[in-house]
Design goal:
By secondary structure, the protein is an alpha/beta fold. The chain is built from 26 helices and 13 strands. The protein has three domains: 212 residues, von Willebrand factor, type A domain (Rossmann fold), CATH 3.40.50.410; 166 residues, no CATH class; 93 residues.
Amino acid sequence: MFNTLKSFILNKATQREQLPGTVKNSAGGYSFAVDSWTQFERFLLLGTSGGTYYIGERDLTKENLDAVLKCIDENGALAVKLIEDVSIAGRAPKNDPAIFALALACSTSNDLTRQLALNAVPNVCRTFTHLSHFLTYIKQGKLRGFGRGLTRAVARWFNEKPVEDLAYQAIKYQSRDGYSQQDAYRLSHPARFLKLEAESPRRLVYNFIAKGEVPEELNGYESDEYKPVLRLAAAQSVSKGRSENIVNAIEQWDLPMETVPTESRTREVYKAVLRKAGLTWILRNLGNLTAQGVLDSRSELEFVIERLTSRQQLRKARIHPLAIFQALRIYVTGKGYKGSNTWTPKRRLIDALDEAFYASFKELEPTGKRILYAVDVSGSMRGARASGLTNIAVFEAAAVMTMAAASVEEDFTLIAFDTATFELNQLSKRQRLDDLVARFQSFGGGGTDCALPFQYALDKKLKVDAFVVFTDSETWAGNQHPIYALDAYRKRMNLPNTKAINVAMTANRFTTLPSSDPFTLECYGFDTSIPSVISLFLSGS
């Protein structure tokens, strides 16, 4: 057994007493501290928006900032690669932490790291919204000046995009965070890095971004290569109220809703946009589509359901499972969080969102292992928002991510805990998400005792191959440290190789299990790869 256990008398220390190798956590108990790279990855996947129950957003961000900077300083190339990997794969609910970390890497004094980070800007900042966040972090944080390297990086953002995509960005994301595309264009002057003919499609799109102008006379631009320019002209005509038929313009030129004046957004307009829209827009507008009566049509409803439940399309659009759960949470209420919009939820659409949640993960094979899943429902898990999602508490996110991990398993036990244990074995592994969360909402709210999952299994004489515990690791209320409870379970059940996985739900620096134990693993709660990582770890010898 690992050295920590050998250096302390079994069962003599409560969780408010320090063991060798532990540090005081934010709740006043003692936990193990993760290393800087683990905290860096936690930050990228979990973010710090909203802080935690014990730590304010500003302090939590500062704590993570120190870890990010340390990793960039230790191995900048590896840090930039991790940022790119998390962002490009869509592993996190929000891209903002990756963008922020990239802004820091672009501002380091190390020439190689800085160049690698600048080269990564178009990969991480894929939309103008991302780019505006990146520029805002640099400007407001006074991280660096807008010198030659940053100028070229932003210019590459423009120059490396296909003309069709560039035109779409110009239409959909004209201004974000106080930055307009015109601002970003004038800061970087991308055209000077290319040899462009005066009438080339890219030059004309750049003229639109820089001056808001399209050619007054469009004759001679009928060929396919000039379609982006004609699309800009159509978008400008619709946005300025000059289009005689908005629906035809949307259908012909694939125009987003941002081009349509609010007073012109009729049912037919929503129907036309729906047929052209991406999955992210559909998820965010299910209430509007229902309220407008668009989904009263069987064909439109079937179209939405087919899009939502397509595993291929969900992956292509980088739709995170929590984004789907958030859409479900809003949709079932029948009203928006802002404004006065209301609707009557459609049962088939609710079921489709539930199916979409599971489809957003990689296909998994069951491990065949006996697994106990435990969800921390203590007050600290209730008092923090999941990755800044205003309507989802951390414990609710933990509950649905647990079911994603358990969805393919045949032999599992599910419990919740704070300072007591709550059994949920009567729940189906494919019970609908909103029903599942409602059950979890009826439990907990007290202190945190992360030893309870191991004690529960021992008391019940459950033979378990692995424990998977979703928690913020702010344990303090128990009379026994979690590592002692795990050790007692292994010894008394004669299962010395029982594995334990700590799934971190907040970006603090704590964990309940030591890294020196080869049968333990640290995961991150909002990572889309969680079920597959757990499956691989449990399938190993």
